[in-house]
Amino acid sequence: MNKPLLWAFAVVCAGLILCFSLFKPDKSEQRATDSSAGLQGQSVGFQHYETNNNVHPAAAADTDNANLETVLTQLQLTTALAPEETAIMGPQLPDTRELDYEQIVTPNTTSPVEGKVAYLTFDDGPSQSTPRILQILNEYEVKATFFVIGKTSEESKRQLKNIVNQGHALGNHTFTHNYNQIYKSAEAFKADVDRLDRFLEETVGVKPEVLRYPGGSNNQLSWRAGGRNVMKTITREMSKLGISYFDWNVSSTDAAAPVQDKQSIIDSVISNSAGKSKIIVLMHDMDLKTTTVAALPAVITHLKNQGYRFDVLRKNSFTYQFLKP
């Protein structure tokens, strides 16, 4: 082969090598692009989960047909991750105990309106939720009424003292909260109420001024124990003794499910309080009611923005009764 042909062949080969080197994709850049796209996809997925309150993508396989709040409660009762463990494992299902409430509520800018009063009430405590409820009430400078039952553990006694020492009111919700026992007769009901009064006087030095019937004054579960007219008899006899009882005119609906959806609680209070100047709000202070605790800041903020001031229930406070004695 002559030299001109060799030089031509060499030039062609060099050109091919140059083109290949210029257009070959850089592997490190490709890895970075893929990584960025992956992270972006994870971020979008997590935002979608937070915004729509759906199951986190990482847990979807395990909670395909489960209620998110039920899963949350089970997780809270069975495990508590340390901060470093959470950092290693990445985003987990939300823990309402550590919720940054300031990020989910709008600061209040409305002064109380004359005549508008909100009475927040919490039934069935004290419980593991009590400290968080008290913390939130303190942060928002709100007082509430706790209709408690006869829980005698040392921790329960400590929480009862905390309720009183922080300026909240205790209400009587019966000692046993056992429908079959307390609703047998007016005498059986009064005996159970008196038992709780004695316990509270011995524990915190307070005898409640107010009473709430388990299930409300018109509940039908009482019929099984005392017949269809038992509530009429009980409310009449208790009223003769000068005992004031309080039902509610705003339900948070947190008793509609073992763990109600947080937004449903907020929406229920908003809709059920609309157009009312005085409201008694029913909520529950129980271990499982984590979403009640999570909803509380938004509930308080909404009511403040609507011009309500907050107060505790007293013997002569505004009352709402399903069944008139």
Key attributes of the depicted protein:
Polysacc_deacetylase_ArnD, transmembrane helix, NODB_dom, single chain, six-stranded parallel beta sheet, 325 residues, Glyco_hydro/deAcase_b/a-brl
Written overview of the protein:
- The chain is α/β, with parallel strands linked by helices and 325 residues long.
- It has a domain at 115-310: TIM Barrel.
- Helices cover 47% and strands 10% of the residues.
- The chain is built from twelve helices and eight strands.
- The chain has helices at 3-23, 27-52, 68-78, 83-89, 130-139, 154-165, 179-182, 186-204, 223-226, 230-240, 262-273, 290-305, and strands spanning 117-125, 145-148, 169-172, 210-211, 244-245, 250-251, 278-284, 309-310.
- Strands 1, 2, 3, 6, 7 and 8 form a six-stranded parallel beta sheet that branches. A two-stranded parallel sheet has the order 4-5.
- α5 (130-139) links the parallel β1 and β2 (145-148).
- It is elongated and about 120 Å long.
- The model is unreliable at 22-104 (pLDDT under 50).
